[in-house]
Amino acid sequence: MPTFTTIIGLIIIALVLLDAFETVVLPRRVSRNFRLTAWFFRRVWKPWVALARIIPSPARRETFLGYFGPLFSILLLVAWAISLIFGFTLLQYGTGQHVRLGNEQLTFGMLLYHSGETFFTLGYGDIVPTTGTARLLAVSEAGMGFAFLGVVIGYLPVIYSSFNDRELEISLLDSRAGSPPSAAEFVSRLGCCPDPSVLDGIFRDWERWSANLLSNQISYPVVSYFRSQHSNQSWLGALAVMLDVTSLAISGIEGVHVDQAKLTFAMARHAAVDLAQVINAKYNPHASDRLPAEERERMSKALAAAGVGLRQDAASLEKFAHLRSMYEPYLEAMSRNLQISLPPWIHQEKHKDNWQGGPWDRAIQAKGLGEKVHVTDQHF
Questions:
Q1: Do 120 and 262 reside in the same domain of the chain?
Q2: Engineered SS bond to 91: which of 9, 56, 117, 313, CB 3.0-4.6 Å?
Q3: Segments forming the whole domain that contains residue 300
Q4: Are residues 211 and 298 in the same domain?
Q5: What pTM did the predictor assign?
């Protein structure tokens, strides 16, 4: 029995340390089938989503889902700490009763208490190691407690730094593609820009954003569960819009340079494919078409009215369909897994951008100042 508990304790400590190393330190995706962190988030995410579906209000449901990433990042750290304390308890118990508490009988519960106070370096001294093995374990656990504190101090700021980097470009998309964004809105606002370098510059920024998204969320997969500040924005929606826009540009927007669009499409598609594996998204062969023929026709007319022409020849349509098939299954799978709605190619009706609304607008207009400060729906 002591040998068995010692082995189990060593296994628990080794698994936790390996998982913490791969989660916090190792800057690459681990392709192993089983990982504690991945298992933890996937198992907890499903009941969390089930609870969210009970909430009738979409805004409150999105808020509830938004708690998941930050809350369970903290709970993951708690789970690591509890597992390490329990593992060291098994080691102390398995190597014999090498600690002393006056003349009282030592129990497993007392050893668990001793392991906890050692891990958090409280050092009350009511239980004292009496053998070399027990003292070595106590010193090792105390040192691991200090290391754990360092992980907590360093891990959370890195997570939020990655989140802030991701959200910056998403916020900039508001005035360029609407709220929520759509490919038709983006192209109608910027696709007929007389200076092609403007569109190329935007595509270049989004190429770097896609690379940054891929790097951050492979290194720290929990960031995938962090929701954006506005309920009508998301990293997945932004990625979808960029893939939609660049596929349109490559296949048939008249007068648009395609060189930078191809580079941005390649990077964004790379991000979509790899991140779908990170969150364990599953392919759905029966997913609905995001752009049926009638919607494409409506989009073509809307873009034509905005001065943007789409090629309608067979080769362009075939190329467009091929480009969409390269990324839409991955986006749909991630959308289903993360409970994030994909943006439409074109909205059914006009929406105000987030920057065009405010909590005081009605009050200002009621005072008769609306004509002076009201921003119209015409886009600059």
A1: no
A2: 9
A3: 173-349
A4: yes
A5: 0.83
pLDDT, averaged across the chain: 84
Nearest 5°: CA angle at 85, between 83 and 87?
65
- Provide the β-strand partners of residue 310: 253
Q: Which residue has the tokens 């191809």?
A: 262
Mark whether 63 and 209 lie in a shared domain: no
Mean pLDDT of 271-276: 94
- Whichever domain contains 101, its CATH number is 1.10.287.70
Instruction: Copy the structure tokens of residue 165.
Output: 């980097």
Task: Find the range with the poorest average confidence among 184-188, 254-258, 351-355, 366-370.
Answer: 366-370
Nearest CA among 287, 166, 275, 179 for reference residue 221:
275
Q: Do residues 46 and 92 share a domain?
A: yes
Tell me if 94 sits within 8 A of 3, measured CB to CB. Answer: yes
Q: Which residue carries 């009763």 as its tokens?
A: 97
Residue with tokens 């490559």: 250
Residue 375 domain flag: no
Does some domain include residue 130? yes
Per-residue pLDDT tens digits for 211-259: 999 988 888 888 899 998 888 889 999 999 999 999 998 988 877 778 8
Looking up tokens 């005072």 gives 367
Residue 132, domain member (yes or no)? yes
- Classified as helix, coil or strand, 99 is strand
Residue pair 333/281 in contact (Cβ under 8 Å)? The answer is: yes
